[in-house]
Amino acid sequence: MPSFRFLRTAADLRPAAMPGRRACMDWLRLFFPQPVGITWHERVRMVLGTGLGIALVAVLAHQLETSLPTPWMVASIGASAVLVIAVPASPLAQPWAVLAGSAVSFLTGIACASWIGDVVLACGMAVGLAVAAMLALRCLHPPGGALALFAVLHPPEATLPAAGPLLLNVSVLVLAAIVYNHLTGRSYPHGQKAAAAAAPAGGSAFTSADVDAALAHYNDVLDISRADLEGLLHLAGRAAFQRTLGELRCSDIMSAPVHAVVPGTALADAWTLMRRQAVKALPVIGPRRDVVGIITVADFMRLANLDTHEGVGERLRKLILGRSRQPDQVASLMSIPAQQVQAGQPLMDLVPLFSEAGHHHFPVVDEQGQLAGIITQTDLVRALARAVAPR
């Protein structure tokens, strides 16, 4: 019996340990690289650009090797080349970040090497203070940390005169990056302001203030400009919206069968049909069931001339019962031509028509041009609601 209880206890413990094992495996997967979502053309562009950039800097800097008692080139320039060529849109790779970040970090390293006697302490202080200075000047540039450390570890070579060749190297690299990125279709310097990110047509589900709130909550340095981030969010929202609504056609949400009238229908009969079916518009069809017009409640109200001293009910009653001098047939009141849509037309095409053109009803016709249904603003709103908050 005791062994039986032990086996039951061990069996009970094994399922409980599975979540911990799964969490451990998920954590270990974080160390594996993720696929790089770029084309081979972009990879070749990066390889050629970094190689050519460093080669150009090396050729020019090597000419000064004999005339200056300082290093003619530092290793951190290679890291800067990767940034300005491979990720030219990154805030860490912009010209101000490269130039100012390199200069302030190198000077910080020289100061720490001169004022702090313990080289171990000087290493930590140099890199930490360099990062603080770059953050204060808004020029965070990762290779700057290497320059600060180089200045502490190689004090004989890291002197104020050495700042000249260093800035020359960096300046040549930035100029080469500007030319190369321009020739290969990349924006550099890259705009970092939020205004550069244009919202997609038709509005957006979020505003710049929403992006600011999300960034404040994230509270971390992003290696992407705010403009690009907002643009990506717009594109992602558009893609999600297109995925949920893009495959819908007008025939998927139209009301069918639809009640319709002919041009010779009496206004009284059309009004009665509207009231009985609780609709606000009736397509007007011809002999081949083609749409020749549309009559709406707004047409009745407009013809009733509501600005007169008579009330709404009295004016409509006279109009519908034929006691008015106004025409009494649908043909004289309907809107011509009627805006119509195809049954197979994407539903997304109707959004600007409803929101900007001021339409409220669209007769839907099939491939033969015959009336197949009608779409109202309510139908569109219902479809949008299902797309935004699917059940």
TrEMBL record:
Keyword Metal-binding, does the record have it?
no
Q: What is this protein called?
A: CBS domain-containing membrane protein
What keywords does the record list, in alphabetical order?
CBS domain
Family matches, as PROSITE patterns: CBS (PS51371)
Organism of this sequence:
Oryzisolibacter propanilivorax
Stretches of the chain forming a coiled coil according to its record:
none
The UniProt entry, under SMART domains, shows: CBS (SM00116)
- Supply the InterPro entries for this chain: CBS_dom, CBS_dom_sf, HPP, TM_HPP
Q: Which intervals hold domain CBS?
A: 254-311, 334-391
